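Hi all, posting the design record for the shared folder.

TITLE: backbone redesign
STEP: 1 of 1
STRUCTURE INPUT:
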């Protein structure tokens, strides 16, 4: 790997670790020429494009960063790490590409994001659901929170 600072032809790997649920390898490198340290990432190159079919019928290329931005927005000012959200977004991406189809409806992605957020943080889930499911009044919030509370209470009984 060429050094981005001095253009030296080679670099030494200092540390290697897996990120994004094992889908990416992060390597810290050091240039023997100038001592500069830098990070590189190795990801699987996908040959297939995944299209998202929007509600109005438009199609756009799937963008994991768009999914991540939505999750980050739902988790603003909550104690949820970026790494947790990146792992969730990567899992969603892997599941979508694993389906082996060329197109998926945006509603499927929305449901996957909502389900992931429900596991991560209930407040983030309600925030996301309120926008995604287009809550129109307070009753929608009450119903969704009631479902979460019933599920939580049911889980406590089983333990």
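Okay, here is what came back for every position:
SEQUENCE:
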């Amino acid at each position: 790997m060429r050094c981005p600072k001095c253009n030296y032809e080679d670099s030494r790997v200092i540390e290697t670790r897996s990120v994004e649920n094992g889908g990416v390898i992060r390597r810290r490198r050091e240039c023997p020429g100038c001592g500069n340290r830098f990070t590189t990432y190795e990801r699987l190159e996908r040959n297939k494009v995944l299209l998202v079919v929007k509600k109005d019928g438009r199609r756009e290329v799937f963008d994991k960063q768009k999914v991540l931005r939505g999750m980050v927005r739902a988790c603003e000012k909550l104690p949820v790490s970026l790494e947790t959200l990146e792992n969730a977004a990567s899992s969603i991406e892997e599941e979508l590409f694993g389906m082996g189809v060329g197109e998926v409806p945006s509603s499927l992605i929305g449901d996957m994001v909502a389900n992931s957020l429900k596991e991560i943080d209930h407040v983030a889930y309600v925030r996301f659901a309120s926008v995604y499911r287009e809550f129109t009044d307070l009753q929608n919030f009450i119903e969704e929170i009631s479902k979460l509370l019933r599920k939580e209470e049911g889980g406590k009984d089983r333990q």
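COMMENT: Residues 12-43 form one domain.
Let me know if anyone wants the other runs.
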